[in-house]
Amino acid sequence: MRYIAKDIPLWQVTIWDKKFNNVDKKWQPKTIKYKYLLSDELDSLRVDDGDVRILYTGKDVGFTTEELAGDRLSEGEIISIPWGGIPTVKYHKGKFVTGDNRIATSKDIDKLTNKYLYYFMRGNIHEIASYYRGASLKHPCMKDILKMTISYPSVQEQDKICGQFDVLEQIIEVRKQELQLLDDLIKARFVEMFGDPVSNSNGLPESTLPELGEFGRGISKHRPRNDPKLLGGDYPLIQTGDVANAGLYITSYSSTYSELGLKQSKMWDNGTLCITIAANIAKTSILKFDACFPDSIVGFNANEKTNNIFIHYWFSFFQAILESQAPESAQKNINLKTLSELKVIVPVKDKQDKFVEFIKQVDKSKVAVQKALDETQMLFDSLMQKYFG
Fold first, then answer.
1. What architecture is domain 5-153?
2. Any residues with CB less than 8 A from the CB of 325 and at least 6 apart, and which?
3. CA-CA distance, 248 to 133, in Å (whole number)?
4. Mean pLDDT score of the chain, rounded to an integer?
5. CB of 329 within 8 A of CB of 281?
6. How many CB atoms lie within 10 A of CB 264?
7. Which tens digit of pLDDT belongs to each residue from 56-99?
8. What are the domain boundaries of the chain?
9. Residue 351 CB neighbour total at 10 angstroms
10. Is the pTM of this model over 0.85?
């Protein structure tokens, strides 16, 4: 690919929303001002049928209306990064309201398009992230970001490259929607077969988890997973993030546990339902290997009245409720007593088994969709590496 411009610092080709500290005034002869809203102000504007984008600083996506936005409405073709928190890059063209983002636009779209600028910044998100600093809430050092260099071909070539990314992004989004629809289908089937589990609308028998099987916390003696003493042992170790991110099954783990005195009795069996009670509250997954875990995870193995996969999907209706009830603290958590007192519906076992068979059929479709999603994402990432790596 032939570059028209090569290794140009961003400050030469972009206009930002503010003049930044410790940045040479010659780097920012012009700014474009926007009106910034606090998170709760943005939430108050949010509606389901809006057509004005709400640019949160996080990954959340929301919309409002011109009427609700009022004089806080902005418009343009822009790229944004959050002023604080986890670095992400967003693109928007049209009307919007914004939180505390730093907002950029190309100085001359006849030379550098905003869409190409967006994909360049997205392709270099790891470098941008390295410029976010701070002890707790991290903020970007804008001087370092403005010093980043960009190379770009002709506008025609930029449009061609961006077109490839746009198509792949659309395919990725469709695949994600398909996975969500399959998850929604399972939930709908659950309600169809057993009624609303929160209100127990079908009046089914109820029991607590301790009454329905083996129920208990993981080991209380644990260290961070990168502790050298955890490496090289015989005991697979999982933690709350593994449970929260695994979906239905935990199929891999991050370390092994070799701490002196750990006994085989501390292991939970393949098929155990894992329930988080700290950080990612009431997230559940099912082990596909024998493993141990810390006391921030509760293990459950059902008796003859029910099965772990049924309980896993029952929990999906309660996760948000339990999370909202957790006391506010540096790390949210629920105690074992709260979990042990939950009333679980107990339909006849044959009916539970039919639901699990339905899940297995849907899972076959999910595996195919996930494979297609992974392949598309790999292609997207390889093109990012080709053009911006």
1. Alpha-Beta Complex (3.90)
2. 334, 338
3. 35
4. 90
5. no
6. 9
7. 999 889 999 999 999 999 999 999 999 999 999 999 999 999 99
8. 5-153, 154-186+350-389, 205-346
9. 13
10. no
